[in-house]
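Researcher: Predict the fold of Sodium:proton antiporter.
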Amino acid sequence: MSVYHTLCFLSAAAMLIAFVNSKIGKMQTTIAITAGSMVLSLLILIAGQNNWFHLTEIATETVTRINFEDFLLKGILGFLLFAGGLGIKLPNLKDQKW
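Model: Structure tokens for Sodium:proton antiporter follow.
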């Protein structure tokens, strides 16, 4: 699987988990996506242990091909910092100044 296909798959999984959460769970989105990804990971591990399909080799090969330093520092860090800054409420920050 290429990087493009991996990112598309992860984005689709996150959107599916968020959609199910909005209809059923009503939890905070970040918590729901984290919990949903943990459940999906456990299901994939259980399926691999029961020899239903073998995704372990593909996942291991994909993760070892990624240069995480370049990916994090040159690729996604700016987006993560920007998204974190969007959640800051200035009135709450003003109340906490010295």
